[in-house]
Amino acid sequence: MLTATIKGMLAHKLRAALTSLSIALGVAFLAGTLMLTDSMHRAFDQIFRELKAGTDVAVRTEAASDTGTAPTPVTDSLLPTVRSVDGVASAEGQVSGYALLTGVNGKPIQSGVGVTAGSSLSRDEDLRGALSLRSGRAPTRAGEVAINAGSATKGDIALGSRIKILFQGPAEEFTVVGIVQFAGEDDLGGATDAFFDTVTAQRVLGKTGVYDTIAVEAAPGVSEKALARRVSSALPAGIEAVTGKALAEEASAGLSKGLAIVNKALLVFAGVALFVGSFIIWNTFAMQVTQRTRELALLRAIGATRRQVMRNVLVEAFLFGLTASALGLGLGLGVARALPLVLSAFGLSLPTAAPQLQATTVLASLLVGTVVTLVAAIAPALRATRVLPVEALRDSTPGADRFSHRRLILGALVAGLGLAALFAGLFAGAGPIYIGIGVVGVILGVTTFAPLVARPLAAAIGWPLQARGVPGELARQNAMRNPKRTASTAMALVIGLSLVVSVSVFAASLKASIHDFLRGSTSADLYLLPTSAMAPSSPEGAQVVRGADGVALVSETSSGEARFAGGVAEFASLDPATVEKVVELGMTAGSIRDLGVDGVVVSKSKADAQHWKVGDLVPAQFGQTGKQSLRIEGIYSKKAYFDADYLISLQAHQKREPGFMASTAFVKVAPGANVKQVQDQVSELLAAEHPDTKVVDQAGYEKAEGASIDKLLGLVTVLLLLAVLIALLGIVNTLALSVFERTRELGLLRAVGMTRNQVRAMVRWESVVISVVGAALGAVLGVGLGIAMTQALADQGIESIAIPGTQLFASVVLAGVAGVLAAIGPARRAARVDVLRAVVTD
């Protein structure tokens, strides 16, 4: 039986290749994602290990919370104490903060990852770790700076150049005296870096009299752990000493944790690709069982048991899965190299090391690919065991399925359970896992009863083809003949397109909500935004605008993260004296004007969930100031702009997180002033003094927000294209098997006068019908999922629903075009069918 299985696979090389490629692409995405994850972790471990190589011990304040906010700086008076500890060879204070470089043209050098750092450069070269001077020298006094080589290249900056650097406070000009690199690299993931002498760094970064950390080098013969214990014993309460190794591991782990969402998202896309591939495998094996009815019946007739027949099909599936998974591993290396390029094209630059194949990646890829293939082949294998020996005397021709009430009920039940899980995840807060289960359940439910609607849908879509003559009519009838096959082939395309459409609906609704908010909930004339969508800007930009002619009011906002009522949540900070003059908050209780440094305004949804009212105390914990209680001064209902459950004042934000950055500011123009003229004046002012901030009108704000949404939508669409590609391979596979199955039929058509061109046209039009059926079902399902996601986030400010009709129409048209392309190979093969061999086939 094993020999027969292997010979059967080798006898149909094209079928084996197409089936293997379908699952191989899904495994390639999975393997590539795992390799990329390992590569990023290895790269970050190496970077932080090298950067901290010169620091044996670091002295810092113990973190007040786990929100990721930098801890409170230590006083610089601790430095002499640390230097006096036995075993300390060298110790220097270090500070860092916001510092945005501008090029020789005065424009800011934007970072691909939003990191714009300024730091002190240690005098002791041993404490610099892997950071080294590529040219020039280290800055030693005010007015001097060293910059990373990547920024020098981007900004066309040479040694001796005078450049402006933007800080949280006023911008200043510096002379570039040094160009630095990190372990031989020009930058870290595209970040921009400026380095100053310690005194200058403290002044410009707002750290006068304090250090973020004190870096300590051990004397020869003293271990890191021993020195850390000695230094700790000399420190006051609340200050800790950690080893350089622990500091590097902590920094790497923190960044890896922040990138976990990227890894999970890529794994989700890999799962989608494998899910689509499983449909193709199931469909392929189902068609094989039908085509091999006589072969299986003969095996039964000569003594093969049902178990042996099932084993025959499953062994074939196992070999397919194992071979395809091995192929996918090889393709995964290419995916691992391509994914960083794709992410970088959408503004997410990540440092990576050379992809390496780990044992866990090999095991996971082979296991997942093989198991998915085996599971997809179970139903066809069970069907194969029901073939009777007497069927060896019959022709194996495809038949038509009759309407099945049982299939309808089962499909509706599975889809209903899927919807219940989906709504529980979206609306009841059951968690993301329920959303995934719900989406899979809905798709499986639709797949179950899809054959019941595939025939009328194919008839309606194929109706215009009657005008194409005999080829068009035959193509329509072929798609209608076996609705189960048409539906299962189309469902692979449905999955990919439904996800693309759902994300498109969500993005369009988000844009519409922003438009409606600007139209109805804000009276601002202009808006101040960061120049880079990836980074915040300095609050100093708003201060510059506040004094401009024609500006009546500037209301700033910012955001952060802290613990509220035991859970980590985002908060927004604002100016309580001016915010209601520019934004409609929908206060349902209390007043925003009463918000002081120890107050908070809570969203109505959060207040209802926690049974809070005005006057209640909310336990909070900030990164630098620790635990405290905030008094609820008001409750608001309109989250369209701030999208946060907690609002605090800018003064409260500054008190708890000194050095926070700005996000947006609303600007009202003085009565009688021309808005366009004021905008032009403010734009010139910002370009000259704070180019990290730009001013836009309402249309410009919508465009800026829409560009960010479109970039995210584009990234998701590109990543989902692999699933669509696999679906198109499924159409190719189905048509190729269908041509083999209908050899006699095609030969008879040729015998009665059909030309080769007509045969090719028939197969192409059949492919178009199947593709458009999949696109239509995918569009309907995607719109439903998109609306569900939008409604689930209604309390987060996404209050409008928009359906991108043009994009939906384009998706259907592109599906038809893709169907034509998918049919090229099968159509040519069908046209080459030998008439005499076909009519004598038995």
Which features would summarize this protein structure in a list?
842 residues; alpha+beta; 8-stranded mixed β-sheet; 16% strand; globular
Any overview of this molecule?
The structure is a single chain. The chain is α+β, with helices and mostly antiparallel strands. Among the domains are: 57-253, no CATH class; 452-521 and 698-842, no CATH class; 526-696, no CATH class. Helices cover 55% and strands 16% of the residues. A hairpin with a 2-residue loop joins strand 16 (551-564) and strand 17 (567-574). The two termini are 24 Å apart.
The count of β-strands is 24
| Share in helix | 40-55%
**What is the terminal-to-terminal distance?**
24 Å
Ranges where pLDDT stays below 50 over 5 or more residues in a row are none
Number of helices: 25
Q: Structural class of the secondary structure composition?
A: alpha+beta
Q: Main sheet?
A: 8 strands, mixed
**How much strand?**
15-25%
Shape: globular
What is the gyration radius calculated from CA atoms? 33 Å
Task: Name the quaternary structure.
Answer: single chain
Mean pLDDT: 82
Précis, in short:
By secondary structure, the protein is of the alpha+beta class. The protein is built from 25 helices and 24 strands.
Fold blueprint:
Elements: H1 2-11, H2 13-51, E1 57-61, E2 74-75, H3 78-83, E3 88-94, E4 96-98, E5 100-101, E6 116-120, E7 131-136, E8 144-148, H4 149-154, E9 162-166, E10 172-182, E11 192-196, H5 198-204, E12 210-211, E13 213-218, H6 224-234, E14 239-243, H7 244-258, H8 260-291, H9 293-301, H10 306-345, H11 359-385, H12 405-427, H13 432-462, H14 470-481, H15 483-520, E15 526-530, H16 540-546, E16 551-564, E17 567-574, E18 587-590, E19 599-603, H17 604-610, E20 617-622, E21 626-636, E22 646-649, H18 650-656, E23 664-669, H19 675-689, E24 693-696, H20 698-741, H21 743-751, H22 756-792, H23 805-822, H24 824-831, H25 835-839
Parallel strand pairs: 6-11, 8-10, 17-22, 19-21
Antiparallel strand pairs: 1-13, 1-14, 2-12, 3-13, 4-6, 5-9, 7-10, 8-11, 9-10, 15-23, 15-24, 16-17, 16-20, 16-23, 18-21, 19-22, 20-21
Helix pairs in contact: 1-10, 2-7, 2-8, 2-10, 2-11, 2-20, 8-9, 8-11, 8-15, 8-20, 10-11, 12-13, 13-14, 13-15, 13-22, 14-22, 15-20, 15-22, 20-22, 20-24, 22-23, 22-24
